[in-house]
Amino acid sequence: MTLRLVVVDDHPIVRDGLAGIFALEKDIDVVGQAGSGPEALAVVAERDPDLVLMDLRMPGGDGFAAIRQLRERGGRPRVLVLTTYDTERDIRRAMAAGADGYLLKDLPRDQLVAAVRELMNGSPRTHIDAPHGSQLSLTDRETDVLALVADGLTNRAVARKLGISEATVKTHLAHVYTKLGVLDRATAVREAWERGLV
Predict the structure, then answer these.
(1) pTM value?
(2) According to a count of CB atoms within 10 Å of the terminal CB, is the N or C end of the chain lower?
(3) Which residues of 93-128 are buried (b: 16+ CB within 10 A; e: fewer)?
């Protein structure tokens, strides 16, 4: 069965790049593209996709509103956020609006494709952002950051300890949240501990 996908991003080059990635997959068919939230709603109504790959911040109507409206319609499609915005607030807003998963645009191509397949195969909501499932691994730096967070250090303290900026700490934590499928520090620490990652 072929998965029908709609790509939503306000940058045409990004849409084309994503379409090119999925064009290499025999079981995934990009049936439409959109450059804004309202346009996405129209394309979804016309093309009836299984999954929407949704950017969040777009001129003319953002992804948050589009996700909410898609959920209000009920039924398909599922929504997987793909964005550069990695703040806890954005992640919480997207998931609260009804997104089924949240990924960052620096995710490697193979992991993006794997995440899409996992979501459509019915993986639990809290794990759809972790393409490798039980084989999930954190980078050394992500592990260092998470271990210090587990010790109760603030982002600023972690940054000083590791000799990096506070913004970099936040980025590492956002990647950890995405990999673990969680939305906050406490849950990330617990999930990582249960998986033996820290």
Answers:
(1) 0.64
(2) N
(3) bbbebebbbbbbeebeeeebbbbbbbbbeebeeebb
